[in-house]
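Hi C.,

You asked whether I'd gotten around to modeling the 179-residue construct. I have! Everything is below, sequence then structure, no commentary in between.
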Amino acid sequence: MTELNLARLRSARERHGLTQSELSRTLGVTQALAGQWERGYKDPSLANLKELSRVLRVSLPWLLGMDETSPTIADDPSAYASGPPPEPRRPRYTSAAEILADYDAPLGLRDLAQARDMARVLRITPEEWTALGSLDYPGGLTLEGYCGLLGMLRTSSLQANQQAMEQRPGRKVSEIASA
């Protein structure tokens, strides 16, 4: 277990004007996990500690309560061990099994992946799992929300396919449908 200084973590987050949700999106973790770190229920991994340090622009020893000097790292990107704060991570999923294996996957998406009968009936393709997994919605979505998004993805895909077919030479799709 790390000795993360919880008061310093919260102070640094608030000083940068970030909510737990915004911080979690930046780090590519769930909001629940970021909240558990801040309340001391769970400890971040070493990789997440490093990212917290970079994103919040504080030294890792200060964040761990080992250093009493000024917490702020210079705004010069060379002051960071691994460069400037990272962009949010976007996981790529191609199956329900990959989503279930990622404990940081959004809860609604995990619920959909766990509902094996529903996923089988919906015949979710690897591309659709990837599209659903790439969405970053503040506050997350429910299982029903992901099903609704799946329907919208499929509808827009059908419309795009129909428009592409209309551009091809030969009989138009609208003529075939009315025949």
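If it helps when you're writing up: The chain is about 60% helix and 0% strand.

Thanks,
B.
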